[in-house]
Specification:
Number of strands of chain A: 9
Oligomer: homodimer
Largest interface: A-B, 26 and 26 residues
Radius of gyration of chain A: 19 Å
Shape of chain A: globular
Strand order of the largest sheet of chain A: 2-7-1-8-9
Number of helices of chain A: 8
Strand content of chain A: 15-25%
Chain lengths: 202, 202
């Protein structure tokens, strides 16, 4: 019997290094699928449909919501963003582990529907370190950075809903942490369960 | 702040390969301490006090029980066997992970007292494989082997109390499983918890 894959949900404040960690993880881990989000905003230069996002019209997105086709979704700046359910369930059935990189709100929506979902929060070693990383990226002004830090502090209050916390001291260690979580979670599976729960023949 | 070590309890049927797995694990894993049991039986040839067992008299053992010095204990063939509490707590405080290799009954006694204890059950891939391994050891007659198999089947009924099941397909994989469990369990620790639970200053 093929073992079903794990549904892993990764969140963490902007600047914590999630993107780099996931890129490295996908390079070394087998049978893992990174979920592609759906969005109603226009593609930016270089963004490819089905790679960066599934781009769809608001009408299409609304139809997906109505037919329960979205695992979670949110509206931000008058555009919808969400996680299409079908590809995720297909990969899980095939035995692939599926990774979703989403915001805390979406993660909690998923946990309500799939109690088996494994919630992992990626953190910077300290808030000071996060600030330094955001400044170092050199892509935001100081006001935006302060906003992001405030948001990070808000998100940290919800970290108790996450089963695992990965501190991004180094990318290498953070990737090993997530690989260990995946491997350990697979040890919750009991191959003898079927024979145990069946009535014993005499 | 130093992180407290993990208390890991390993059980599994006789012949499943626990001993070899633990030997390999101790060779590759850092900061890990294998608990030494106490026993009232006489040392066998080559057995060293404090290495194979802490050998003690029945009076000493009874005094330890009375002063709550045993984490768990059992009586078998008119002799006491048990796990002294003090060295384990000391190692945990120092930040060492502690491994206990004990029977299912003792494991459940420990889980009642220490809910944080991590229970790992080591299994052979199949019961047929277990039988083959017991025959292969060539140390027991067929009646004893049948007794051990019967006992293994009884133990498997209690496997639901264990958080993790490690299938001993190969020693190498089983060791990696346990290493992953240790690493993943350490990700349950929240370094921000202290600041969160303290009242915020305004």
């Amino acid at each position: 019997m093929k073992q079903r894959g794990l549904l892993l949900v990764i969140s963490g404040p902007s600047g914590c290094g999630k993107g780099t960690i996931l890129k490295e993880l996908l390079a070394v881990q087998e049978q893992i699928y990174l979920s592609v989000s759906a969005a109603t905003r226009r593609p930016r230069d270089g963004e490819v449909d089905g790679v960066h996002y599934y781009f769809m019209s608001k009408e299409q997105f609304q139809a997906e919501i109505d037919s329960d086709g979205m695992l979670e979704y949110t509206c931000y700046c008058d555009n919808y963003y969400g996680t299409p359910r079908k590809p995720i369930l297909e990969h899980l059935e095939q035995g692939d582990d599926v990774i979703l990189e989403i915001e805390v709100d979406g993660a909690l929506q998923i946990k309500k529907q799939y109690q088996d979902a494994i919630l992992i929060f990626v953190m910077p070693p300290t808030l000071e370190e996060l600030e330094q990383r955001l400044i170092g990226r050199n892509t935001e002004d100081s006001q935006t950075i302060q906003k992001r830090l405030l948001r990070a502090k808000e998100e940290l209050k919800l970290v108790g809903h996450y089963q695992y916390i990965v501190i991004n001291q180094t990318i290498e260690d953070a990737v090993k942490d997530i690989q260990s979580i995946i491997r350990a979670e697979k040890c919750h599976y009991n191959p003898f369960l079927n024979c145990e729960t069946q009535p014993k023949s005499k």
